[in-house]
Structure formats: structure tokens, C-alpha cells
Design goal:
disordered C terminus, 9-stranded mixed sheet, alpha+beta, single chain, Alpha-Beta Plaits, Pseudouridine synthase, two-stranded antiparallel ribbon
Length: 242
């Protein structure tokens, strides 16, 4: 669908698809978009929110809602998500990604492509998943990662999630690349941890990109740079939104 960005349009409410830059938090993107809208649309106050957090070291699709469309955020949060993840086997980090240094090493000589595919298949379906301590989960009014970064160990309760599809895209030992389609609340870093444990090797997440939320695809999303250019030019653009 084609949209013309206008002051009235943003205030009435639009649902925008963005690609989140590497090392940006989801809030960083929200703040930048809000400031750009205020700057170029001459709006003093505008609501902007995101529909599902992405870790700073992850990239890909983030849905942002403006104005009255922020009431629809929970609707998008409930949708299935799709990710492309590259996982390193045989090593583990405390955060299960590159936020922290490698802390443990394991053997990968027993691992082969067939074993990996069999292991991945075993994760398809509903299950209880314990979130990683390096997460935004709330523990006694504080984010779990605030404890983790101080070296404190806390117990997180498992959540009921569902892995709906899991596909091995590439096997280049000790790395694997997978496509995962899952329910809301699924932590790919926790899935990485569990895959590493199942393979008796350990694992950490090298890279992660969210490619789809429901039927909304990253291929239809804008970069923050392109969004700013469009606001500057105030021209009609081809842009997918709800």
C-alpha cells in the first residue's frame, strides 16, 4: 500500500515496518523515529511504541506504532515470529550471544549434519522454555540482565512457548544457520542454549535477524536513514504498513 507521511496521519495512527540497526536497542529506534516525526512534521508530542523487543545485537524487523495505532501494539506482539540465526557449537558464553566472552568450550567431534537435523526436529512443538538471565524479564521489579551483569544468579520461571518450524539452512562445523518460526515469548538465545546442551557441546548465538512478524516481512521495511530521507523530501513512497 502507498502512504503519504502527514502530520494528521502520524497522529491518527500508523503502523510502520523498520529494520533495526545492529547494536541499537528497540527503544533507541523508537526514540529516533519519534524525534524525526516531531522535527519534520512539526509535532510537539506524538506517541510512538514498538511491538516486540529485539536484543541490541539482533537485527531485522521491528514494528512501530504511532498515535492512536499504539493501541494495537498487543495485537502485533501476539503474532508468530520468524528468525534466521547463526549458532556456534562447541563454545558457550554467559549471555549465550556475543554480549559476553566465551566462558566454556566443548567437544564437537561427535557432531554431524544428521545429528544436528535430528536434534532440531526434536525441538518442534510446544514446550517449557527457561528465559536467559541476560534478558529483560522482570525479577522483583528489576530487569533480569541487571542481576546477570553484576554476576548474580537468579532463577527464572519457564514460559510456555511453541516452535512451529525449524529448518537447517547451513551446516559448516562448528557453525550452523537455522530458520525458526515460533510463538511470542520465545528466546532464540535460550533455544541456542538448549540446542547446545542437547548436542552435548554448548553453543552461543553469533548472529540473529528477525525476518517476519505474522505476515509482515523485513523485505517491506524501511531503514531509519530511508525514513528520514522520505520525511525530508515529503514525497509519496511505496511503503507497506497496516
Amino acid at each position: 500500500m502507498t502512504s503519504v507521511f502527514t502530520k494528521d496521519g502520524f497522529e491518527a495512527g500508523q503502523v510502520l515496518l523498520f529494520t533495526k540497526p545492529y547494536e541499537w536497542t528497540s527503544f533507541d529506534l523508537v526514540k529516533k523515529v519519534k524525534n524525526l516525526i516531531r522535527q519534520y512534521m512539526d509535532i510537539n508530542k506524538i506517541k510512538v511504541g514498538h511491538a516486540g523487543t529485539l536484543d541490541p545485537l539482533a537485527t531485522g524487523l521491528l514494528i512501530l506504532c504511532t498515535g492512536k495505532a499504539t493501541k494495537r501494539i498487543s495485537e502485533f506482539q501476539d503474532l508468530d515470529k520468524e528468525y534466521i540465526a547463526t549458532i556456534v557449537l562447541g563454545q558457550t558464553t554467559p549471555s549465550y550471544d556475543l554480549e559476553t566472552e566465551v566462558s566454556d568450550a566443548g567437544d564437537v567431534t561427535h557432531i554431524h549434519e544428521g545429528l544436528v537435523m535430528e536434534t532440531l526436529t526434536g525441538f518442534i512443538g510446544e514446550q517449557e522454555q527457561v528465559p536467559p538471565l541476560y534478558s529483560a524479564k522482570n525479577i522483583n521489579g528489576k530487569r533480569a540482565y541487571s542481576y546477570a551483569r553484576k554476576g548474580e544468579t537468579k532463577k527464572l520461571n519457564p514460559s510456555r512457548i511453541e516452535i512451529k518450524e525449524m529448518e537447517l539452512l547451513d551446516y559448516s562445523s562448528p557453525e550452523i544457520t537455522i530458520r525458526v518460526r515460533c510463538s511470542k515469548g520465545t528466546y532464540i538465545r535460550a533455544l541456542t542454549r538448549d540446542i547446545g546442551q542437547s548436542l552435548k557441546s554448548g553453543a552461543y548465538l553469533k548472529s540473529l535477524s528477525r525476518t517476519q512478524i505474522g505476515e509482515y516481512k523485513v523485505g517491506n521495511a524501511l531503514t531509519i536513514k530511508k525514513f528520514e530521507e522520505n520525511l525530508k523530501n515529503l514525497e509519496q513512497i511505496g511503503f507497506s504498513y497496516v
